[in-house]
Amino acid sequence: MRNTLFTSLFLLTISVNLAQLKIVGVVKDINTNAGIPYCPVVVKNNQTVNTITNEDGAFMLEVSDSDTLQIKYIGYKSKVISVLNFRKTSILFLLPINQMLTEVVVRADNDYLYKMMDNCRKVLIKSKTTESKVYFFFETFKNGTPVELLECFYNGKFSNSGIKQLDFKNGRAGLVKVDNGYFISTNTSKAVTFSNLVEQSKYFPAGPFHFNIAKLKKKYTLKLMPARDEDSSVIVLKFEPKNSDNTLFSGEVRFNKKTFVVYQIKLSAINTSIHPFESIHENGTIRNVSFDVTKNFKIVNDTLLPESIYFNYTLNYKTVKSYAIARMDTTYTIDSKGVMFFYDYHNPFFKPYYNYDDNLNDYRKIISLNYNKEFWQLNKGLVYSKKAQAGITFFKNNGIFLNFKSNLNDTVSYFDDTDVTWSGEKRLSLKKNKLQRDTTTKYSYGSQPFLSSLYTIEAQIFLDVNKKGDSLVHFSVTVFDVFQTFYNLPEEKQTNCFINIYFDLCEIERRKMEHTLSGKHYAFAQIDSIYKASVQNLAKIKNVYMKEVFLGRNKDQLKKWNDVVYKELNIDNFMFFKPYN
After folding, report:
1. Residue 299 bridge partners (DSSP)
2. What does 520-580 look like in DSSP terms, one character per residue?
3. To bridge 264 with a disulfide, which of 16, 102, 254, 401 should be the other Cys (CB 3.0-4.6 Å)?
4. What's the rounded Cα separation, in Å, for the pair 92 and 80?
5. Residue 1 pLDDT > 70, yes or no?
6. Which long-range contacts (CB under 8 A, 24 or more apart) does 386-389 make?
């Protein structure tokens, strides 16, 4: 009996020690008491468990009491502290490293530092592709006032030279009107993927690793700078264009002089003529674009991996409005800043079951989704800084939120022609939802031998699967795909009824899938199989429905399908649309 009791107590102790808890803390400079922004915080015995501080130095991390935290930041002495000791204080002070070094200017006829830079470039070129979860937070200000907030999660594929691919997982945004419109950075996350350290892009100035050693000598002057690092093998080189060329980045690179592994690179450009921005308005122009970009890397299990990218840019946006008696020019100063954080290496999100158009920007994807409360509870990015919290309050009081609490289709005119989530209270409309792509040509019955080529009606079952502890949770909605749908036929009395019954049939199939999934603990492969079976069954139903009702012109068959919808969803489209009255 004593042995049994001892074993039980031992198991209980183990389970308590391994219990996961969320800790919140701040990393500060011990001399100034200021928070240290974007400082890495990792679990020493498992460095894949990591985060970075926000711009105030605050962080949150899920750990166990048996873990030990490691904080290492450029220019400071590293710190190691057990979680148990950390929980007594929640503030971590770092001591700056004071290291003096006279700057050494390297002339073109001195090869030493140029060869080291070239060796770093070769290591970057050979870096392997890996993947992780990616968190992205982005803010835009117009003349100092918040106008945009974007928060997204992705699966990222990358090497140390740059991001190769970002696959959208989920996101949300806040917007405030500017001159009766919205300032929207439509492809900021995509633009970040164009910034590659070794492959030159037409969207960004060139950097030192874009050139071989001969061209590097012609274009750049190098200076040896103080490393301020505990590791004596770390070197910092400052690079500056030899000529006042606004097509080149200046900056600093930090690397290991023995292995030539790059730990950090800072890139800066002032009034550059090369940038990824363009106005979506005919009368808008962009000028005086300046960048600051910092890319950080870390070593995990002898592999160098990207840790974070933080950036900001400033530009002048000029609009011109012409009136009968005068012309008015307005110029805004636009300041944007963002951070991209890589974590959970080799363990990406489950990709959502939804076929996005590859050309859609993040906003189009965000507005297509209903608010998934559980996803945002399970996935936390960086702790909101005081400035970000103030911005969120500002958007709440003065603007709109997209995907923060609920789906806001049709809230912003810019997003009118977007996918529509099924709702029993709202019905689709051919005109209101902009399903007609070409209404310039009129067709009469029998004048076109292939009517099927003149219209396509598409809806999808969106399914998102996420890990919650040792189990999986899911979220699903039925979405009408406006981008894949077109209807180049004259609208008839029964057209909207015909379209909505199809949409309702998709919702019925989704509910059947939900009934199968709910209350059971399936593995991901089983969920995948159930979803694909539902999609196949929906395709069969659609095929039969389209043939039988023939654009809704077959009254008896349309009535039959209307009865199916009424039985399953208690929705009577015949009563609502009165298609044959």
Report:
1. 304
2. ----HHHHHHHHHHHHHHHHHHHHHHHHHHTTTT-HHHHHHHHHHHHHHH---HHHHH-TT
3. 254
4. 10
5. no
6. 386/56, 387/55, 387/56, 387/139, 388/54, 388/137, 388/139, 388/149
Main-chain phi, psi angles of 283, to 5 degrees: -95, 15
Rounded mean pLDDT, 345-351: 92
Helices 524-549 and 555-569 sit at what angle, rounded to 10 degrees?
Answer: 150
Answer for the pair 208, 269: CB distance below 8 angstroms, yes or no.
Answer: no
DSSP 413: G
Q: E strand or H helix at 115, and its extent?
A: helix 112-125
- CA nearest 120: which of 3, 237, 281? 237
> What is the C-alpha to C-alpha distance for residues 494 and 501, in angstroms, rounded to an integer?
11
Residue with tokens 């140029």: 114
Residue 444 banded pLDDT, cuts 50, 70, 90: very low
The Cα–Cα gap between 195 and 207 comes to 10
DSSP one-letter string for 239-258: EEESS--TTB-EEEEEEETT
**Strand pairing category for 20-29 and 91-94:** parallel
